[in-house]
Predict the 3D structure of the following.
Amino acid sequence: MAATKDPRPCSIADALSLVGEKYSLLVLREVCLGNGRFDQLVRNTGAPRDVLAARLRRLVEAGVLTKRVYSERPQRFEYRPTQAGLELEPVLLTLMAWGDRHLRAEGDRPMLVEHSCGSALRPVVTCGGCGEPVRHEDLDCRPQVPGWTVAGPTAAA
């Protein structure tokens, strides 16, 4: 099989190039919690101010956050999620649930998220077609990029 120098084309890689940078998902967590002012973001994420400014600029340019003035003198901004940013919230909730299950002692979660029904949220990925929970064994991946299979590049690639 011929080797290719380019990695598999992948939407996960594309998304990580934007939100996989250190502090980007933590910024999104805070903005979704309603903490969109710069000083709140510095305090709650632990990000250095220059790094935070760069992440915010990139997330605004990508359309994940919007920026609006909340004070004219001095001019200060707050950040809010766009629709694209809100669509990342289930990713945050699922990642948080995974961390609670696999990286913390039982009952040692730092944040409890409750659904409007009053229950503690347990995020579940479901199929949009049938509504069933998604399980690894039920998935069939079909690469759509010519020259690629699930195992990797084809000889023609």
